[in-house]
Design brief:
With 311 residues, this protein is mostly beta strands. Helices cover 0% and strands 43% of the residues. The protein has three domains: 133 residues, Jelly Rolls (Sandwich); 116 residues, Jelly Rolls; 40 residues, no CATH class.
Amino acid sequence: MVCRRRRLRGTCAAAVATALLLGGLGMGDLAHAGPTGGALNKAYELWLAVTAHEAVPDDAVAAVLNVTAVDAQRAGYLTVYPCGQPEPLASNLNYTAGPGAVPNAVVAGIGEDGSVCLVSMSTVDVVIDLVGYVPAGSPLTPLAAPRRLLDTRDGNGAAAGVTGPGVLALQVAGREGIPTGTAAVVVNTTVVTPAGPGFVTVFPCDQPIPQASNVNFVAGDIRPNLVIARLDVLGRACFYSNQPTHLVVDAIAHLPSGSTGYTAIDNPQRLLDSRTGAGPRRRGGSGRRGSGCGSVGGPACRRTRRRRCST
């Protein structure tokens, strides 16, 4: 890892520590990228050589990471993108000032020198864990850099103003580098200053609103999450919020129709809710409440190495 001043190519010689991706489990050390070592700040661009890790081949096209912002000095956001590309108008995770850690999953295209780049709006420590990679030839195609599809604060992608309670339909295919015929997209979905506690659900617009959630939030929050969303036949994704809120959606990658390697079901389905006792559906079962091991009205469970239904 090196840090580079934004818009300059020179390596930051004063960066005294190296970010490491350790072992097959991808445990990450703290990424030091400040001008004198320490937290990443907004004057610098962190270059992380992903393909230098023994688990990632040189021809990998994207990295799957868990990125955590720790103890931010001020509120802000982190953006992850392929090195060598201009810094995009996009965000991967948002954080508030003060002690604490904010994580999010990230799929980032791999750029120049086999690296992914990070920038931060404010001074913050960063932890990066390697989870996996997208191999060359995969139908999952990362964009050259993340692209903003929706920002209700300024009218990008939809009318300006908060959305909800209700559904916002977003045209995805045929915009911002996402081709027509796309079956599913990887997007970062961020809720901004909602009026109250609630959730956002992302689903194909030709399906009913599912009992599922992608982002959960409290009033006044700024909360992101990575989402793989199936599109309807018109190339749209729908966003349901049960509270008035602004929404920001950034596209990261796309999958063509008929591709192998990932199959999106028709609509998200809730497999478990321990608050209500709703359990998983059995194959070929009715899917009614109580059909799962340990659910209300279902068979008892016994603890072994795995949780199994008793006979």
